[in-house]
Amino acid sequence: MSPVNVAPIALPQRAATFPKNAWYVACTADEIDAKPLGRQICGIHMVFYRGVNNQVAALDDFCPHRGAPLSLGKVCEGKLVCGYHGLEMGCDGKTVAMPGQRVGGFPTITSYAVEERYGFIWVWPGDRALADPATIQQLEWHNHPDWAYGGGLFHIGCDYRLMIDNLMDLTHETYVHASSIGQKEIDETPCKTSLEGEQVVTSRFMSGIEAPPFWKMALRGNGLTDDVPVDRWQICRFTPPSSVMIEVGVAHQGHGGYDAPNDKKAYSVVVDFITPETETSIWYFWGMARKFNPKDTQLTAQIREGQGRIFTEDLEVLELQQRNLSAHPERKLLKLNIDTGGVQARRMLDKMIERERQAMDAPTAAQAQAA
Ligand code: FES
Ligand SMILES: [Fe+2]
Questions:
Q1: How confident is the model at residue 106, as a pLDDT?
Q2: Among 96, 161, 236, 265, who pairs with 202 as Cys (CB 3.0-4.6 Å)?
Q3: CB neighbour class for 31 (10 Å; exposed up to 12, middle 13-18, buried from 19)
Q4: Cβ-contact 68, 83 below 8 angstroms
Q5: Does the C-beta of 217 come closer than 6 Å to ligand 1?
Q6: What is the set of domains in the chain, with CATH numbers?
Q7: How far apart are CA 273 and CA 160, in angstroms?
Q8: In Å, what is the CA distance from 150 to each residue of 215, 285, 305?
Q9: C-alpha to C-alpha distance for 202 and 336, rounded to whole angstroms
Q10: What are the DSSP calls for 130-146, one per residue?
């Protein structure tokens, strides 16, 4: 049979689902040690390593010689050495040397704006000329004597926005986390969603309830009895592109709830940085910063263990939800009042993505003049 000439079909370009001109948490500071780290962020394969003076660099994970991932190599005297034929790469994406070769004409690979702050490595996958480290979100609890922090990292097979939805609607706690933080009063208490500057805030306040098991443990961790009625709060703050900080806690009833003094409550911030790996997978950096009994490292470990178990329950739901959505992209989903926080967050993201698309489509000044 003779081969048939078929013109390639131009597939419609799918709209991006995440903004690229934004800071994302790429890894924790201790994930990059002497060895380079290869990680896909927003669809880009990157390599992270520490160059001279321990300064972190982020580059395309692609050796200009034959395309081997540079993350398979090693770091020697601040230079990244390709593990295939020994090309030495500099932090700026320019080849420094290669055994037996002149490297002056070697193509430069992309280097990304990267910052080490608060124990995390932050990367800007988009235009590095727009990357301003001053816009990295402030984490007041980091290295603060009144606070303790413990956390972890999960790789989850879901669209990053499903995790944002999950964290901006805590009614799921009643069902997904029934044995730890769930309770019927969450369902029974309406939440309020508002826009505060660049944040979407969804909050819920409950009063005179029994603390669920996780919060009983936290009360004991602050030297408080766990068998009296408490006031409980959940204040979810989404900051684009994908961080959700949730003020959570319980206070012995009658002391001001959220505003109760520290010795009458267990107050924490659930820390969530959700970094898209691809359109259907994420790096999920989770943790809890607590503002009570900060020196108790055993308590930190206990809370971390409890939180890890709780978030594993979310992981299972999200991956199976993604499987359903991928199998049925045509199906319309409901937007109920409990979904308002996630819907508002998506609206903010859509605007950012649209602004990026318009900037890409806009002709440069030179092109406009030539036209
Ligand atoms: S592929 Fe990297 S040196 Fe050859
Ligand atoms: Fe959850």
A1: 97
A2: 236
A3: middle
A4: yes
A5: no
A6: 24-135 (2.102.10.10), 148-353 (3.90.380.10)
A7: 10
A8: 16, 11, 9
A9: 14
A10: G--GGGSPP-TTTT-TT
> How far is the centre of ligand 1, averaged over its atoms, from the C-alpha of 116 (Å)?
28
End-to-end CA, the chain: 48
Q: 68 CB less than 6 Å from ligand 1?
A: yes
The pLDDT value recorded for residue 170 is 94
Query: Which residues are paired to 250 by β-bridges?
Result: 232, 266
* Shortest-distance ligand to the CA of residue 61: 1
Question: Which pLDDT belongs to residue 12?
Answer: 47
Q: Which pLDDT value is given to residue 11?
A: 46
Give residue 15's pLDDT.
Answer: 67
Q: What percent of the chain has pLDDT over 70?
A: 94
Query: Ligand 1 in contact with 72 (CB < 6 A)?
Result: no
Please compute the mean of the pLDDT values over residues 155-182 and round it to a whole number.
Answer: 96
Local structure of residue 71 (DSSP, 8 states): G
C-alpha–C-alpha distance, residues 187 and 206, integer Å: 10
Ligand with the closest atom to the CA of 83: 1
Q: Which one of the ligands is nearest to 234 CA?
A: 2
Q: How far apart are CA 336 and CA 318, in angstroms?
A: 18
CB of 103 closer than 6 A to ligand 1? no
